[in-house]
Amino acid sequence: IPGGFLGGKLRRWSMQQALDRQAVVCIWFACNFVGVCCLRTIHFQFLVWYFHSVPFLAWYAIQPEQKQGLLWILRCAAVVVLTLCIEVPYLLTTRGLVRGPDGRAWETEGVPTRQGSALLMAAHVVLLVLLARRSVRVLVAEGEEANIGKKDS
């Protein structure tokens, strides 16, 4: 396909500045995270990646390594709490009726409870906001860094 995915223009594309390795991984994981947050139904493989990426995204968004002492401990605790707020609702399920997009319904295990859904939605919003406020490190020259975006807090 001319000009498509395998077109020469895409292969020649390059950036003037290199992103930090953690920023690249965060972009990959955040794309999957946004998809999981916004979609009503999703394939199992995305949920598998989602569960493994949540602790990294929480750590990347909260940045405990930027602080020392008590602030480091509090930020690490925030990472743990945010991760648990996302993973615990999947344990707070019950047996119930599920309606499909085509109108059919069936009874199954694993139907979310209202409390679990509310906790999951709140944790998703918090993590999305924290990730959106996070600045990205760009490697300007070997050993030097520059922050792009909002100032780190």
In percent, how much strand structure appears in the residues?
15-25%
Structural class comes to alpha+beta
Secondary-structure element sequence? HEHHHEEHEE
General shape: flat
**Average pLDDT value?**
80
Main-sheet strand order equals 1-4-5
Fraction in helix: 40-55%
Report low-confidence residues grouped into runs of 5 or more. none
C-alpha termini separation: 46 Å
Number of helices: 5
Describe this structure in words.
The chain is an alpha+beta fold and 153 residues long. Helices cover 52% and strands 16% of the residues. It contains 5 helices and 5 strands; from the N terminus they run αβαααββαββ. It has a 3-stranded antiparallel sheet. The protein has a two-stranded antiparallel sheet with strand order 2-3. The longest helix is centred in the C-terminal third of the chain and has 20 residues, at 114-133. It is flat, with a radius of gyration of 20 Å.
Short description:
The chain is of the alpha+beta class and 153 residues long. The protein contains five helices and five strands. Strand 2 (93-99) and strand 3 form a beta hairpin.
